[in-house]
Write a structure and sequence with these properties.
2 domains; Tetracycline Repressor, domain 2; mainly alpha
Length: 219
């Protein structure tokens, strides 16, 4: 009988090392998402490695700098947002129900957790392009709610984005905190329904929002 090539087994060799590297990468990205959301762009990389349970050397072998890590988080974040928008757009329910489905999924995935990092690093070109795609999908979702009258007409897509960002930053400490977060999100979603008084102040614009993400190097 021919001896199995250990390079191809899960227990060792290339595939085993590759699987371990992928697991470590997922741990690092999840830890980075939480640490940056809680502590901002000044969070030390060592805190991320500690939260992920990996050595600092392991982290730096995958990401040569904090900026590279932030950029990777943005890539995965916008990919998740687009997937959630596309899933929510599947037929079924009123415009409000479709919008609420998307917002609940986005908050659960904490896709808006990095708003506090805006302008602290350079956005990769693929993220800029993907952001435009996400805006188009979100506008389509909101328009469905406006058209069938189930979502208040003075709500903009950027209002939705701000709500997602606010709840994405809510810390996950205990089951009680998580329960409170879901209750507050339910209250916010009810506030989007079609029969409410007008919103105060001017509507936010994407131009102002995009300017926040323009990278300005620290002096």
């Amino acid at each position: 009988m021919k001896k199995r090539d250990t390079e191809g087994t899960l227990g060792g060799g290339r595939f085993g090392r590759q699987a371990e590297a992928e697991r470590n990468d997922l741990l690092v990205l999840e830890a980075a998402r939480d640490v940056f959301a809680e502590q901002g762009a000044d969070a030390p990389v060592s805190a991320i490695a500690e939260r992920a349970g990996v050595g600092i050397g392991t982290l730096y072998r995958r990401y040569g700098s904090k900026e590279q890590l932030l950029q990777r988080l943005c890539v995965t974040g916008i990919s998740s947002t687009i997937a959630e928008l596309e899933a929510a757009a599947e037929p079924g329910g009123t415009g409000w129900e479709i919008l609420a489905r998307y917002m609940a999924a986005a908050v659960q995935a904490r896709t808006g957790a990095f708003a506090t990092l805006a302008g602290s690093f350079t956005l990769p070109p693929e993220v800029i392009a993907a952001n435009e795609r996400a805006k188009e999908l979100a506008e389509r979702l909101l328009r469905g709610g406006h058209d069938d009258g189930t979502v208040r007409t003075d709500v903009t897509t950027l209002d939705i984005t701000h709500v997602i960002e606010m709840f994405s930053r809510y810390p996950r400490r205990t089951e009680l905190d998580e329960h409170a977060r879901h209750r507050m999100l339910a209250l916010a979603l009810d506030g989007l329904r079609g029969s409410h008084s007008g919103l105060p102040g001017p509507a936010p614009t994407w131009a102002d929002y995009d300017r926040m993400w323009n990278h300005t190097p620290f002096r």
